[in-house]
Design a protein that fits this description.
By secondary structure, the protein is an alpha/beta fold. It has one domain: Rossmann fold, CATH 3.40.50. It has 7 helices and 5 strands. The protein has a 5-stranded parallel beta sheet, with helices on both faces. Helix 6 links the parallel strand 4 and strand 5. Helix 2 crosses helix 7, helix 3 runs parallel beside helix 5 and helix 5 runs parallel beside helix 6.
Length: about 200
């Protein structure tokens, strides 16, 4: 199977933060995935990135879904900014996923999603907040996993991947965005999930 058109939705992970070329332009796992799919299928995968730094689930609903064109492949990363909101509500986040995942399924495109990585211990925060962050990230990942299963979404379950906890995959920024190596790992894992199924 080949995917000729691909749109990435979500937050800074999909926007490619942490993975820039010598000119300062972002690469990111989503752009890398499009290149891998082009190479593996022999058909050009045209890529559009609607993701943006700082996006939360509500932004996907209000801004990104309305701008979504008809495509063959859609990816979604969301949740890391949501769980850092002081007034984070798991119930509200799950309700927003109730809107996002069915809307994506209605497109009839192949849908990709990624759970949050279990990296609360790597984030720049007071030690007493790490257990709270970890619990929120686990809850968000559980909700993403549940919605992905309900809508037959191709899921990279980063929460359950010990390899993604490796500090060598991340930049030394407050949010621990992946570096080029980390973005390449995500792209390769997703390409494998797509082309080997």
């Amino acid at each position: 199977m080949a995917w000729r058109t691909y749109v990435a939705l979500g937050d800074s992970l999909s926007a490619g933060r942490g993975d820039t070329d010598l000119d300062g332009a972002r690469n990111g796992w989503a752009r890398r995935l499009a290149a891998l799919l082009t190479k593996r299928t022999g058909m050009t995968c045209h890529f559009t990135n609607l993701a943006r730094d700082g996006a939360i689930a509500r932004d996907v609903i209000d801004e990104q879904l309305p701008a979504l064109p008809a495509v063959d492949l859609i990816s979604l990363t969301i949740g890391m900014n949501d769980v850092q909101l002081p007034a984070f509500s798991f119930k509200e986040f799950a309700s927003e996923l109730d809107q996002i995942f069915p809307a994506l399924a209605e497109t009839r495109a192949t849908i990709l999603a990624i759970t949050l990585p279990d990296i609360a211990h790597l984030l720049s925060m007071p030690p007493e907040l790490v257990p709270i962050a970890k619990d929120r990230m686990r809850q968000a990942s559980d909700a993403i996993r549940e919605h992905a299963a309900a809508e037959h979404v191709v899921l990279l379950d980063a929460w359950r991947e010990p390899e993604v906890r490796d500090l060598a995959l991340y930049n030394d920024d407050r949010m621990r965005h992946p570096n080029a190596k980390g973005h390449q790992l995500i792209a390769t894992r997703l390409a494998d999930l797509l082309t080997e199924r």
